[in-house]
């Protein structure tokens, strides 16, 4: 079983990693103190993704501590190298990993098969809650919604490039996108890197999780890697549709109906589009900005994954939409104003 390699990030992607709290290795004593001995009252969730505990560090900051079971066949050297990769999963648009603790390495024993990951805690709610709770809805006008989606796109771009192969096939449901106090979007439920493994009978290099609690798959194969990347793009498209309409796309049948409706709106002009768009954002967007994102969303949710754009293309169009919006905001002539 081999290791995943660190990728070569562009300068634009690397910028998102600047200014973050230094990564650290925690002791079990520190985690025990943070969780009051992993008290049941601090257990937030317990499922296939591991156990999550709420904790408080000595500096007063709140964290989430994730407990994962390791596979026995992972050597200490491989585990140490793997944790070096984990330590790079830090970006302004991710709920970043602040550090880890491997009890067996600290105790010089091979009996403990548990790994603890310490994540930052984001307590301002989800992007979903900001679209559905009326007090929060007023905070998210069109510019703030586009900014949040750009944050998600940058987080995806980072995940796709931080390692080779990239971290793909992430759970990017809108309820997994957190917003901090500055309304910066942070992806909370992204996958952890996989370890490469020997070629299978089809002569493809596969990959597997080093954790016994997480499902294995073949994300290491070129075909599944591309599909995983485009699945992430598809989920981003669903988020785009929801920030525009204020409603979840619904079932596959409802999604297809919405796609047809939006495609017609691009041809028929702004009056029809106004009927579909979330009333909360009427009067806060430039028509060209909105139409650009409608087109981007439709491309992202194309049925055939090969027809979906790359995350780089999506990000370029999102940033273009912001430029159009900024020009509209600073102009006296409003291209479109709903009431």
TrEMBL record:
Superkingdom of origin: Eukaryota
PROSITE patterns referenced in this protein's UniProt entry, alphabetically: PROTEIN_KINASE_DOM (PS50011)
A GO cellular component annotation in the UniProt record: membrane
Membrane topology label: Single-pass type I membrane protein
Keyword line: Glycoprotein, Leucine-rich repeat, Membrane, Receptor, Repeat, Signal, Transmembrane, Transmembrane helix
Gene3D superfamilies for this protein: Phosphorylase Kinase, domain 1, Transferase(Phosphotransferase) domain 1
Compartments where found: Membrane
GO molecular function ontology, one term from the record: protein kinase activity
Region called Disordered, residue ranges: 198-229
Pfam families: PK_Tyr_Ser-Thr
Record domain Protein kinase: where: 38-320
Biased composition (Polar residues): 205-214
The keyword Repeat belongs to this UniProt entry's keyword annotation: yes
UniProt biased composition (Basic and acidic residues): 216-229
Name this polypeptide is given: Protein kinase domain-containing protein
Species: Asparagus officinalis
Classification of source organism: Eukaryota, Viridiplantae, Streptophyta, Embryophyta, Tracheophyta
